[in-house]
Amino acid sequence: MKVTTLKDIANELGISVATVSKALKDYPDVNKGTKEKVLQTARKLNYSPNQLAVNLRTKQTKTIGVIIPTTVHHFFSKVIDGIIEEAEKKGYLVIILQSSEKLFLEKLQVNLLLDKRVDGILMSLSNKTNEFVHLKKVLSRNIPLVLFDKTEPSISCSKVRIDDKKAAYEAVSYLISKGHKKISHFRGDLNPKISNDRFEGYKEALEDHGITYDPSLVYLCNNNTDFEDGYNNAKKLIHENPEVDSIFTITDLVAIGAIKYFNENNIKIPDDVAVFGFSNWFMSSVVSPTLTTVHQPAHQMGVVATEILLDEIELNKENKPCLHKEIILPTKLIFRESC
Amino acid sequence: MKVTTLKDIANELGISVATVSKALKDYPDVNKGTKEKVLQTARKLNYSPNQLAVNLRTKQTKTIGVIIPTTVHHFFSKVIDGIIEEAEKKGYLVIILQSSEKLFLEKLQVNLLLDKRVDGILMSLSNKTNEFVHLKKVLSRNIPLVLFDKTEPSISCSKVRIDDKKAAYEAVSYLISKGHKKISHFRGDLNPKISNDRFEGYKEALEDHGITYDPSLVYLCNNNTDFEDGYNNAKKLIHENPEVDSIFTITDLVAIGAIKYFNENNIKIPDDVAVFGFSNWFMSSVVSPTLTTVHQPAHQMGVVATEILLDEIELNKENKPCLHKEIILPTKLIFRESC
DNA sequence: AAGGGGTTCGAAATCGTTTTCGATACAATC
DNA sequence: GATTGTATCGAAAACGATTTCGAACCCCTT
User: Are strands A326-329 and B145-148 parallel, antiparallel or unpaired?
Assistant: First the structure.
């Protein structure tokens, strides 16, 4: 019933709390005999240290915080999987918070984690995040911070991401190489760097291949209902630009919304319109036609970001300076039926 | 840089730590003037209480632990979404751990959470969990525990789940009402209650409608690669029982694996074989043909389980006894093209 | 002048560890 | 016998907050 403390063990054996503590941590200045007795009664009383007290004393919580836009997302759930896996391996626990794409929540959650005295923070910024005082606060407190996926160049901390521009460039170049000329882009929200990068990659690929960029072929997805965004934009696209021959979408979910519209309206994929997605969700190999897309190493991103964070935490503990890294993970085009 | 403590505020104003603490918590026995001064300097020095110290003193962490088999799963990610949402609303943080369907990890993680002094624990048991000492340990420590989805009758704590047997019964009865007679079942792992319940529902529905249960029509999915399990079992099924006219699967993912096999081999759904899934994943409305399935209220399950847990934590704090509830959330058949 | 009542404050204990540093005891050395 | 060395232990401070309880003070009353 009652949780046993060092004091209980000390009382049981008639020795001091200090000795018990040292015995359990195998200090050299405690007799072998008493060490054994302490170990025995500790086991007998089912002792396990109160982490709260340990944390208060050592000023470490062996806990990291994660703030992401949402957990209900194949990409993020795989990242989380990687984070938890890596953290657990090194003995750290993970607190997860969702910003739900809201800046004020993101700020609030940063404060929660700081108050909780987490040893480090992992973040993927919300689509609405356009100021960064809350991130600077973390850095000024000397708490390691690693940004992944949705990052921000102006903040000097480690980052793990993909080269969105290059990946988009490659995808659109592939469409062009297959003879497509009227290439639409269903782009993401205007604020986050990744959707701007992908948009830039799209534009640059067009221009490098002698196709003039046509703004009327670009459609915005910002309702946070990716699937319906894709569906509705596909409908608009077909009415406004019937001669379109392909689409490059910001994400697979948008692509799948478009595919659904095309399937329902007897528009053949890829013959009438080719579709190129982004992320390589599990679903993209299941949908019909299967979706050509860009593979994003989600699990690896979680693992690598956590590795870097834990390294920085260790360096921090020893008061060593740490250089911030920016890791660019490789992407890969996955060719399937939709192109 | 340095984090401010109560002491800093006290020194700044030349008063005691005790008064500062009481001023910040609006105790009646502190002068209005000093209250204001304390509030001002607290704001000026950007004070926020060290939760570690607060927790140690108050013996509450305002943190709950969650142990689930995996996060990379549409169902669980929606449950997590509900949990985090509800917890955050009430000012609680959430630590998430994955058992990866391994009993020894589940046990270890329970201990981690107990050491961390979480205020309560939310669990969905792994498929391999067939002993429960670790759960009893939680209860004996008087820490509220709520099981959801994968629960265990022999443990006396609150539970939130669906009526798996009834849902399966309804699904299979629907197949029968549509004239199907050779109904296969792709069942889940042998251990967990939910897959046995669904199996029982399947069997009972057959028997109640005068169809004799045929064990050779039941296939096991236990490779934890649901999708491929479905694909491979579909292949075996067609070779061993070519006259089959429908399948009821343990989960949508299995169903989608089967659908993929049927699509590839020109077996028409639902004309040759009808497919009935379970869970109503997002994907099931996207796949072709769209999947008839059982809707499971995942988000709600997370919210309700958390509500109950937090209620029990409150009661616990006041040393009031609490009755354990068992909530059965309603399911719903979703009719689409595959049946 | 004594007592009662109200206001305002702070000393100190407490939560459960960790860790420093001094104390003690005993053996060995010269 | 004084000194040094070694082994073993524990008192106490510290981490940063919360909370009890008594002290101090002033104002009124009688």
Answer: unpaired
